[in-house]
Amino acid sequence: MMQPMRHTPTLRTCWTWTLILGLAIVAWDASGLDLPSAQWFGTPQGFSLRDNFWLSAVLHEGARKAGWVVLLALAIVLWRPVGPFGLLHRLSRGERWGLWLSIVVAILAVSLVKGMSHTSCPWDLQAFGGSLPLVSHWDFGLRDGGGGHCFPAGHASTGFAFMAGGFWLWPHQRSAARYWWALSGLSGLVLGLVQQVRGAHFTSHTLWTAWICWSVGLLCFSLYLRFSSRGKA
Fold first, then answer.
1. Which of 27, 155, 183, 211 is 20–30 Å from 107 (CA)?
2. Is the pLDDT score of 19 beyond 70?
3. How far apart (Å, rounded) are the C-alpha atoms in residues 189 and 166?
4. What is the pTM of this model?
């Protein structure tokens, strides 16, 4: 395993870009583009694809269950890396479980924010045939009168949460980490878009989910390096 101190410049760069991307998403929020982008899929009569079988049953319910299966399978592979997963032997036991736990923490972080949110889904809003006004998720003290819990995009975290694991591969094989991030990010984007088409989320909901999952992974890895270096001191 690389010495933790050799990661410092890379981690500093990662944190810098994480901050920049966070500010870019804030700029998207401030632009007010959430509503126009949702109008690509919804009308004052609602979202025509809300109950589409492939989007609702397959890419929503089915993908969510598949995500939990993949997470369980990953735990088994990390416990005993075999076949094409032999690369994981390069990771220490602590790194392998850190990889898995960071994914779980990312899922829990999105769920926690979602559970505290008062933001309702686009399909509940007056602009799309519902009864609620549009209230920004940044207006913490203002409720829209609905059930809330629609921010950020929980379903997208089924894919994005796995991005948290890429940091643990980076010191051992950067190409594998890049592929990991690309596959996880693409999965999250597809699942986020599915819910946007159905009217369950705005674009910003998906973007913030990606940012939270990435940031949680980076934080977990940074803490691991910090404490492991102290243990070797």
1. 27
2. yes
3. 17
4. 0.93
